[in-house]
Amino acid sequence: MTGDDERRAELAESLREVRERVDAACRAAGRAPGEVELLAVTKTFPARDAALLADLGQTSFAENREQEARGKVAEFTELRPAAPRRWHMVGQLQRNKARSVVRWADVVESVDSPRLVEALAKATGNALEAGEREHPLDVLVQVNLDEAPGRGGCAPSDVMTLAQAITTTRELRLRGVMAVAPQHTRPDVSFRTLFEIATRLRQDWPEASEISAGMSGDLESAVAHGSTRVRVGTALLGGRRLISP
């Protein structure tokens, strides 16, 4: 077997196992498996891994560093130009990276301030005018569930205000909320809180129905509490393989 063949076999097995976990979590929660999307977090892994996953039917991918993602998305496009794909930005995003990120990201899940909303709206508008994008940018409000300093996300009390700022733009489309469960809190508690926030959000904006929550270690809890998208890296791709920036 070639190196690609071996890696493809590894990824096929991991993808099967993760999908079985998601399906089992959905059944345990009385939900249909199709309600929960699997997002492959490919940070620190090469574009070739993403291409192999695309060969196996995976269509949604995530990155958390704009600089790494920019080159990886371009390489993926060269490797698999016809493959269906959506790229998500899930890491903290500085405003000065907005112009670059809107050129490759279909979704930004880490919107956490009015100033970032403004920067993304302006950058998306410019990209649409320049023909660098065909559609408005889908965005999620990232929630800092324990309000720990330095962690990405806005305070739960600021979610509705930030959502209002997003929906007043023509360039951005509010799709829901995203969060990472704090390590010192039981996942069930964190995800229940996020579900309550998401429910309030949908009362005013029914189209904001997405809840991006749950990773390799806690996806079952997230699915039990309404997650519509789990973000899986380690369980899918293995230990981090550092790549050149």
Report the count of strand segments.
Answer: 8
If strands are numbered along the chain, what order do they take across the biggest sheet? 7-6-5-4-3-2-1-8
Number of domains: 1
Low-confidence stretches: none
CATH top level is Alpha Beta
* Helical/strand content category: alpha/beta
The fold-level CATH name is: TIM Barrel
**Oligomeric category:** single chain
Helix fraction by DSSP (H/I, runs of at least 4):
40-55%
Could you give the distance between the termini? 29 Å
**Strand portion, in percent?**
15-25%
Order of helices and strands: HEHEHEHEHEHEHEHEH
Taken from the alpha-carbon principal axes, the silhouette is globular
Overall pLDDT score? 95
Tally the helices.
Answer: 9
Taking the sheet with the most strands, its summary is:
8 strands, parallel
| Gyration radius, in Å | 17 Å
Name the CATH architecture. Alpha-Beta Barrel
CATH superfamily, called what?
A: Alanine racemase
Would you spell out the secondary-structure blueprint of this structure?
Elements (H helix, E strand, L loop, with lengths): L2 H26 L8 E5 L5 H9 L4 E4 L2 H14 L6 E4 L8 H4 L5 E5 L2 H17 L6 E6 L16 H9 L4 E7 L8 H18 L5 E3 L6 H6 L4 E4 L1 H4 L8
Helix pairs in contact: 2-3
